[in-house]
Amino acid sequence: MVGLDTTTTVAPVLILLGPPGAGKGTQARMLQDRFGLVQLSTGDLLRAAVAAGTEAGKRAKAVMEAGELVSDDIVISILRDRLADPDCAKGVILDGFPRTTVQAKALDALLAASGQRVDAAISLDVDDAAMVARISGRYTCDGCGEGYHDTYKTPTTKDVCDTCQGTDFKRRADDNAETVAARLEAYHAQTSPLIAFYQTQGALARVNAMGAINDIASDLGAIVKKATA
Ligand code: AMP
């Protein structure tokens, strides 16, 4: 952990940074349950916009399928609308946002307008080589969104969700080898500079995210506890 500033006066704002497959979604859900925060995934919001056929969804679809980043204006606008929802007043964990310096600065401006700021930006540090294997085996429960993996996290009862007992599961269209390579490239070129950005703000923390899910959750929990104390 590097230079984490721990004073929080308003609802906490936490960011999970890391390449695709680092476990941001899984860990954000665990933090949501443990700390009563709202998980906010721009990937989920964009997939919902694509499914609903909104104007933003239509513009985002092909870009997402190619594993590239959706334009800052679309993503910032989707995020701004969601942040204004009343449930976000209890605090948020941003999962997959910001992904560019433009987005990070827009977030700072949005938060500053309501007297808030980023309390902690936590980088999930992983080896790229392991990410393709992680991503190609993952799937989620269609009912509640709980994440699973063919090798690392299977449901306790085969084909039954541990959380909601649902039996329908889905795999993401962009979780294939070619798209993953493009997504990793986008992460290194456009998102990884945010590690230095948040270090300069004194908000950066880092965890080794190559271990067991529960060990990583416990490291993250300690950081969040400190940042939200
Ligand atoms: P994710 O579910 O976070 O892996 O995001 C899936 C895809 O949605 C990414 O590969 C991008 O195409 C798009 N996306 C999600 N969040 C952002 C963001 N903050 N900025 C730009 N594109 C995004």
Q: How would you describe what is shown here?
A:
It is globular and about 45 Å long. The chain has a 5-stranded parallel β-sheet, with helices on both faces. The protein has a 3-stranded antiparallel β-sheet with strand order 6-5-7. A hairpin with a 5-residue loop joins strand 5 and strand 6. It has 9 helices and 8 strands. It is α/β, with parallel strands linked by helices and 229 residues long. The structure holds adenosine monophosphate. Adenosine monophosphate (AMP) binds next to helix 2 and helix 3.
What are the key terms here?
binds adenosine monophosphate; 229 residues; 14% strand; five-stranded parallel beta sheet; globular; alpha/beta; single chain
How do the helices and strands line up, and which of them pair or pack?
Blueprint: E1 13-17, H1 24-35, E2 38-41, H2 42-52, H3 55-65, H4 72-83, E3 92-95, H5 101-113, E4 120-125, H6 128-136, E5 138-141, E6 147-149, E7 169-170, H7 177-191, H8 193-201, E8 204-208, H9 213-227
Parallel strand pairs: 1-3, 1-4, 2-3, 4-8
Antiparallel strand pairs: 5-6, 5-7
Bound molecules: adenosine monophosphate.
